[in-house]
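Help!! Second protein's tokens look totally different from the first
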Amino acid sequence: MTYPPNRRLLQHLRTERPALFTCVRRADVEATNWQAEQAIRPAVVTRKVCGGNRSPRGAATQAIVASVLRTSVQQHRDPLVLLVALQRSPRPIVADLRLPGPAPPT
């Protein structure tokens, strides 16, 4: 295979192979991501109504904050308490937001 985009695709598939068919091996993993799509829908609507972001950094920040807010709500935690703790930390810290269920395959 000599066409560079094909080589990149092949390498990507090799790298992601263990995760590609997780839904076949595990009954608790759905084959679609519709729940994730629905979860981010409010953030997408907000972005479109507000005219998007003015910079790539602003877009990345909005995505991170939306993810933290959604995850904290899903874990029945107060997102305001979490964001205040992150903002007040004297040095960068990682938010304690754990994924429920078993760890993903490596």
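Here's the second one for comparison:
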Amino acid sequence: MFKFKIGDTIKITAGKDKGRTGKIIKVLPGDQKVLVEGLNVYKKHLKPKGNEAGSIVTLPRAISTASVALVCPSCGKATRIGFDASQTPKVRVCHLCRQVITSETKKK
């Protein structure tokens, strides 16, 4: 089970966007990275193709999970994530307030 899920609110703890918060739009568990909406963005210059004009597109870059902390929905603070295996199924738990962290995302 991965600690971060799509739709979680996170706070960036390192880098150029340190201190900012955002929602996770994509999780890359193999690379231990997440994509956050509107944060860690860069500009890509696209060349003209056929009749299309060239343009500049803003895209989000992946952030390492070591540089982000989950914002607990119950206490509202950036926290580490623990697991409680005594419950079925295994659930994520806030290290500060010990409340269960539920994800409101839809499963496919």
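Reply: Different proteins will give different token patterns, so don't panic. The first strand starts at residue 9 and ends at 12.
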